[in-house]
């Protein structure tokens, strides 16, 4: 039986522990997760109302940042750069553009794009993960781009810096934006990587604003779109029991989405209205 502490979200930043008093100043602190019942305590949020990105909450690369970064394991084509991340009119904006740059160890890339995480860089003290949680409700309101080869996502990874488990709150392939992609990646008892996911045909998710969320509990993970349950995973023995941090990004190309083509419109933008995380204080 898991104890109540399993569901206590932790903030391990040395310089920016989350303050309830600060929460009361934001509209995000006065709302509950869309479409969910129960009692909740907000433990992290960003409404992106400031002129610049709050770097006490966010990094602009994976932990292996080398003046930029990418995910070579997926054969993605973009090099993530801080300049492709901005705040504008109350939104966090990632911009993907065709641009020739040289990445790590001289590898060339044909696109740049943007991402943020609540994790840390490899040179930082391990206690400086900006925000992590074990369980809770994770919610983002966003407007996603369409186009062959575009791959916006909101997901969670372990603070241990291991690649699994991974909870994908939402992924959308720009070539088929009417499908909501929800995935969970873990290792089995033999340490072998396993992937389970669910794709749901819905409205064109790039035509307007939508709210994406996941409710991570001790015995299940439940995915929501605009407050409506879309899928759940209920093999309790596989549910993560370790701190995980948040990632948001706009990838370009890769094994799954394929490469951009002549129909892909650039610059492409992913806009985020807010990110919020709650603990459940009652079922």
Topology pattern, helix = H, strand = E? HEEEEEEEEEEEEEEEE
Number of strands: 16
Oligomeric assembly: single chain
Shape: globular
Straight-line N-to-C gap: 16 Å
Low-confidence stretches: 1-26
Helical content band: under 10%
Q: Largest sheet at a glance? A: 10 strands, mixed
Write a structural description.
This protein has 283 residues and is an all-beta fold. Helices cover 2% and strands 41% of the residues. The chain has one helix and 16 strands. The protein has one helix at 20-24, and strands at residues 40-46, 78-80, 85-88, 91-102, 108-113, 115-117, 136-143, 150-158, 166-171, 179-187, 193-201, 210-216, 221-225, 228-233, 244-252, 268-280. Strands 1, 2, 3, 4, 5, 7, 12, 13, 14 and 16 form a ten-stranded mixed β-sheet that branches. A six-stranded antiparallel β-sheet has the order 6-15-8-9-10-11, with no helix packed on it. The chain starts with 19 loop residues before the first helix and ends with a strand.
Secondary-structure map:
Layout: H1 20-24, E1 40-46, E2 78-80, E3 85-88, E4 91-102, E5 108-113, E6 115-117, E7 136-143, E8 150-158, E9 166-171, E10 179-187, E11 193-201, E12 210-216, E13 221-225, E14 228-233, E15 244-252, E16 268-280
What is this entry, summarized?
The chain is mostly beta strands and 283 residues long. The chain has one helix spanning 20-24; strands at residues 40-46, 78-80, 85-88, 91-102, 108-113, 115-117, 136-143, 150-158, 166-171, 179-187, 193-201, 210-216, 221-225, 228-233, 244-252, 268-280.
């Amino acid at each position: 039986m898991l104890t109540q502490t399993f569901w206590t979200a932790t903030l391990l930043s040395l310089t920016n522990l989350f303050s309830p008093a600060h929460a009361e100043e934001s509209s995000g602190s006065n709302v509950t997760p869309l479409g969910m019942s129960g009692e909740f305590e907000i433990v992290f949020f960003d409404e992106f109302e400031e002129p610049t990105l709050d770097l006490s909450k966010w990094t602009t690369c994976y932990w292996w940042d080398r003046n930029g970064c990418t995910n070579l394991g997926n054969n993605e084509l973009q090099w993530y750069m801080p300049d492709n991340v901005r705040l504008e009119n109350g939104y966090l904006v990632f911009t993907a553009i065709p641009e020739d740059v040289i990445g790590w160890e001289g590898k060339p890339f044909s696109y740049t794009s943007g991402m943020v995480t609540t994790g840390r860089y490899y040179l930082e003290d391990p206690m400086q993960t900006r925000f992590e949680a074990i369980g809770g409700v994770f919610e983002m309101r966003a407007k996603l781009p369409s186009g062959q080869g575009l791959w916006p996502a909101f997901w969670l990874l372990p603070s241990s810096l291991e690649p699994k488990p991974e909870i994908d709150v939402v992924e959308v392939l720009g070539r088929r934006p009417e499908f909501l992609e929800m995935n969970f990646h873990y290792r089995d008892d033999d340490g072998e990587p396993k992937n389970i996911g669910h794709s749901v045909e819905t409205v064109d998710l790039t035509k307007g604003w939508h709210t994406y969320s996941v409710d991570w509990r001790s015995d299940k993970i439940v995915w929501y779109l605009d407050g409506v349950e879309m899928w759940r995973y209920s093999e309790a023995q596989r549910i993560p029991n370790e701190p995980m941090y948040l990632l948001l990004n706009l990838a370009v190309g890769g094994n799954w989405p394929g490469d951009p083509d002549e129909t892909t419109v650039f610059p492409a933008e992913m806009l985020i209205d807010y990110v919020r995380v709650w603990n459940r204080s009652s079922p």
